Amino acid sequence: MITKEQITALVSSKIADQPDLFVVDINVRPGNVVEVILDGDSGVTIEACTEIHRHILREIDREVVDYSLEVSSPDLTKPLKVARQYIKNIGRDIVIRKLDKSKHEGTMIAADDAGCTIEFEIKEEVPGKKAKQKRIVQENIPYSEMHDAKIAIRF
């Protein structure tokens, strides 16, 4: 049986000399279905995915262990998983659902290992004025308070 630790070690050793690449997720599901999701600070190429795929195939003989293997980049519709993905996406619009069920949308203006900061516009009433005033606010949201966060896809 293939383990997540085995695949993690193989992928880590292969990308050690490519500091731009990082692992987003590795899953080993029942039936030895292996899924490796890679990303890079400036994106990940098909060639990089193919290289990792071939490396794993060379190291784990399919004659000995039957498994299926998929190496890919993150899906745009999936939530962000690691801090480096947030950092990579600074400047993009993001939708964050917090654990308290609140939803926050805005432009991510900063991110680090603890959380991210988003900027968004609110409308608030001003005493003595009929129309609401727009105001730009920033909110720092720790990862520990997030249920999930996705990049907003706008057309």
Number of domains: 2
Physical arrangement of strands within the biggest beta sheet? 7-6-5-4-8
* Uncertain segments: none
- What Rg, in angstroms, do the CA atoms define? 20 Å
3D shape: elongated
Q: Give the helix/strand class.
A: alpha+beta
Order of helices and strands: HEEHEHEEEEE
Tell me the distance between the termini.
Answer: 44 Å
* CATH homology superfamily of the largest domain: K homology (KH) domain
Primary descriptors:
GMP Synthetase, Chain A, domain 3, 21% helix, 2 domains, single chain, 3 helices, three-stranded mixed sheet, 155 residues
Structure description:
This protein has 155 residues and is an alpha+beta fold. It folds into two domains: 4-72, K homology (KH) domain (GMP Synthetase, Chain A, domain 3, 2-Layer Sandwich), CATH 3.30.300.20; 83-151, SH3 type barrels. The chain is built from three helices and eight strands; from the N terminus they run H-E-E-H-E-H-E-E-E-E-E. The strands form two sheets. It has a five-stranded antiparallel sheet with strand order 7-6-5-4-8. A three-stranded mixed sheet has the order 1-2-3. The longest helix has 14 residues, at 46-59. It is elongated, with a radius of gyration of 20 Å. The model has no long low-confidence stretch (mean pLDDT 94).
